[in-house]
Write a structure and sequence with these properties.
Length: 160
């Protein structure tokens, strides 16, 4: 769990090359912009599948982040059972990821497993962060707007 009272957050999608690395990068950037780096331990992202382990993020995802001034530095990795004890929050993008994570989560682990859309205060965006992989750049832009908003709302609601 969180070391020295610091919060640890893992973001999860299927392959860890589009949505979750974007969510990780945006969340880190948002935390830094608010001067809250000292409140957080690990911020990372993972995939439920191992399709892309070791690969950089999808270029469209990385370019969308860069176009908004958000740096991306990531290599795809797969979530493991041990991560449920390393992170306070395991935040996923859709119901399929949620189901997979709940099946993988060891009994008694402390991680809170949630959809990122649970921080969709006021219903401004769709609750599900859809996979933009097979679509155009507009899907990545929409994902960016979603994860930016959800990151802000997470900080408002979860920091004591």
């Amino acid at each position: 769990m969180a070391s020295e009272g610091k919060i640890s957050v893992a973001f999860v999608c299927l392959g860890n090359i589009c949505r979750s690395p974007m969510a990780e990068a945006v969340f880190k950037h948002t935390v830094k912009e608010h001067g809250l780096l000292d409140r957080f331990g690990k911020i990372a992202s993972f995939g439920t599948a191992r399709y892309h382990v070791g690969e950089p993020p999808d270029e469209r995802s990385a370019a969308t982040c860069r176009n908004h001034g958000v740096p991306v530095d990531h290599r795809a990795q797969q979530i493991r059972k041990s991560h449920f004890d390393e992170f306070d929050y395991v935040v996923c993008m859709d119901e399929a990821n949620l189901g997979n994570l709940l099946r993988l989560k060891p009994e008694g682990s402390k991680a809170r497993v949630e959809l990122f859309g649970e921080w969709n205060t006021g219903g401004k965006f769709r609750k599900i962060v859809d996979d933009p992989y097979y679509g155009g750049i507009n899907g990545f832009e929409y994902n960016f707007e979603q994860v930016s908003y959800f990151s802000e709302e997470f900080l408002k609601r979860e920091l004591p």
